[in-house]
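Hi there,

I know you've been waiting on this one. I reran it after we fixed the sequence typo, so this is the corrected version. Both the input and the resulting structure follow.
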Amino acid sequence: MLDWWLYSLSNAAHPAYQGYEGRPLPEAAQAEGVSVPELIMDVLRETALDSTITAKGGREHANRIMLQHPAGMIGSDGVLVGGRPHPRGFGTYPRLLARYVRDNRLLRLEEAVWKMSAFPARRHRLEDRGVLTPGAAADVVVFSLSDLEDRATYENALQRPKGIDTVLVNGHPVIRDGVYRGGTSGRALRPLAAGTARPGKRSQR
């Protein structure tokens, strides 16, 4: 049976429900005098679908199996909108590197980086991403493994991690000396058809 207490409203683009951001769905439903399914339908209708939730769950044993599996890739679907987004938005990669590479030694550093970058890029045919080679996009993260620490929580998901010094997106520094500098150098990507190259790039095949 679904445990609604594991789910909280994270974003509700309507004044009537914004006060419930960060609160479990049963708590918000009780305050509104409706059932949880009724609350969900009301929120979706009143916000014109502009609403999201966070969910707690997952099992450590299953996470370890997936991380070590040869087909396992590492990513995050965190969406940084609303008053209480999921902490995975800022915390996924620092936590993985700190906990499963540095502390628990579940993965080697190069293996974890591969699963975060080149492996998913190859899987989605993004031939100029995920690798540091001539002609590829200069997406680079400079970090200190010994200092890495994810600080995002369910209460404050926008706390930036420690230990990341520099981030380049398409060659432009958006984080320098650990300080976010802003910028809009990122862009949406689409997979390439086999054997083709992105405009302005030579195929790596």
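Quick highlight: The mean pLDDT is 90.

Best,
R. S.
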